[in-house]
Write a sequence for this structure.
């Protein structure tokens, strides 16, 4: 019995659920491409947690299976030959999943894209399975353009597939593949990495900058190798949670933002940094605080100061306040349509500044 199949049977994975394919492909195969923050320390295979982490392969044949070890109920978008097809729902075990079957016999590209965010679960790639006589083949060259999104629930795509604002979070309605950053990255022809977590702030004990150096955000020993992937553009969209309980002072906001931009500059000194605002903030809520006007003033003031000091690669971009006529996602988050509108704004801003 082959080792992967033996492992699956020992763990209770039923052969009838997903028919195994005879050729096992190691996670070490050089034709596997990892996009995003993967931790490579575990001997069982590369692990990822952040939204948008992706595995790319190309094969010749009609079918493909994958073996994943998961810690939660993640959702993984399958993209075959550039078209989203099925969605894999993981369970807390090592399991065999059908990626594709019944395809025309020929070469096919496949992407497995983690739609759900880090607190939902961690994924580990254990290997692939192919038909008899088949193997993975080399992928096309990687895109030359690279864009990183840093943010909170908006950037994660929290609730963007919910029926309405009355629904609360479930992994099934969070789709980072349709979040504005991922949509913009595809429009720009850029590799996409997200460092985002719902409820995170720019500063304080829940600050996303505290996790920025992590490959696996729940593992304090998991350090990300910044030299392995250097973005051309970094989009920071934070503030919705910072301005929730109160308006921070201008100095608090600008000091924290300046420090984070300095961290980004340390690892990507030539990157363009886009300081983004929106689309959930407004002047009407919370009542009486004019949160949107305030964060706009603070952030544009910082951008202007940094540019006057000589950093011409820092920019401000603002997304329109979400409009209920475009639908509302879970817990008043942006809908898929609003994410598309945001993506158009971001795409235009990046094209203008980087010449893409």
């Amino acid at each position: 019995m082959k080792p992967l199949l033996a492992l699956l049977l020992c763990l209770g994975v039923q052969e009838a659920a997903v028919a195994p394919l005879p050729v096992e492909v190691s996670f070490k195969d050089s034709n596997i491409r990892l996009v995003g923050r993967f931790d490579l320390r575990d001997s069982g295979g590369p692990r990822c947690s952040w939204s948008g982490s992706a595995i790319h392969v190309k094969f010749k044949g009609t079918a493909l299976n994958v073996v994943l070890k998961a810690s939660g109920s993640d959702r993984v978008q399958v993209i075959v030959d550039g078209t989203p097809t099925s969605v894999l729902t993981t369970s807390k075990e090592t399991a065999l999943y059908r990626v594709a079957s019944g395809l025309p016999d020929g070469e096919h590209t496949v992407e497995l894209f983690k739609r759900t965010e880090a607190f939902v679960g961690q994924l580990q790639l254990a290997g692939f399975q192919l038909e008899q006589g088949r193997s993975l083949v080399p992928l096309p060259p990687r895109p030359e353009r690279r864009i990183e999104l840093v943010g909170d629930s908006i950037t994660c795509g929290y609730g963007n597939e919910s029926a309405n604002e009355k629904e609360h979070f479930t992994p099934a309605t969070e789709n980072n593949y349709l979040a504005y950053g991922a949509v913009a990255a595809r429009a720009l022809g850029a590799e996409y990495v997200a460092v985002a977590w719902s409820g995170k702030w720019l500063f304080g004990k829940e600050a996303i900058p505290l996790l920025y150096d992590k490959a696996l955000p729940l593992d304090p020993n998991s350090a990300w190798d910044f030299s392995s992937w250097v973005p051309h553009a970094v989009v920071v969209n934070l503030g919705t949670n910072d301005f929730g309980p109160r308006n921070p002072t201008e100095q608090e906001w600008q000091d924290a933002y300046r420090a984070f931009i300095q961290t980004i500059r340390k690892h990507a000194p030539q990157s363009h940094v886009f300081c983004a605002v929106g689309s959930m903030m407004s002047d009407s809520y919370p009542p009486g605080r004019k949160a949107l006007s305030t964060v706009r003033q603070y952030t544009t003031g910082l951008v202007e100061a940094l540019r006057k000091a000589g950093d011409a690669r820092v920019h401000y971009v603002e997304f329109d306040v979400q409009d209920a006529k475009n639908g509302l996602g879970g817990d008043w988050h942006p809908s898929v349509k609003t994410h598309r509108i945001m993506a158009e704004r971001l795409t235009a801003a990046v094209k203008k500044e980087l010449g893409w």
User: Anything to note?
Assistant: The two ends are 51 Å apart (CA to CA). DSSP finds six helices and 16 strands in the chain.
